[in-house]
Amino acid sequence: MKNIKNIINQREELIKSLAILKVKKYLSIIDEKEFTEEVVDIYSNEYYCGVIENLSHISFNEVVRRIEEIKESDMELKVLFNEKVMIQLKGYFTTKVCDVILLTKTSIEVIKIISREEDVINIYESPEMKIIGLGVIDKYLCQTSSEVINLTVIQPNILIVSIFQVGVESLLHQCEYTLM
User: What is the torsion angle, in degrees rounded to the nearest 10, for the CA atoms of residue 28, residue 77, residue 80 and residue 110?
Assistant: First the structure.
């Protein structure tokens, strides 16, 4: 018997991978051949099913909506996928993965796709998102003049997108006293 937690994690990874693959195709980062090869790998995974397709498409639509919204106000957009960020907590380094990062000269947005939660995630109180935000600030702040960071969670299974905009200094201050 397979571990149910493992199955849930595998399905979440498939949702993220397929959504990100679709975004890459939409942005012409990959060509049709590469897209087809990677999609076939995902479709042949034992955990793939129609629900995975639907949730990945919801996630794809939300990421594209965020990209288009940013493009309206700032033409130079850098989109990063599956970026690892490292942050030091209580003397130890931890690595977190950001599903999508949207960077412009004036803004930073971190997007996380989480489909396993059945309750709305309160980003304001989420240590995970704050840690990811800190890691992104540490790694990319020198590339932007943004004074705020958007922490975005897409929960396709419950059709919720939560965006928490916080000042960079405020996040650094909060985390200095609550996470460290």
Answer: -130
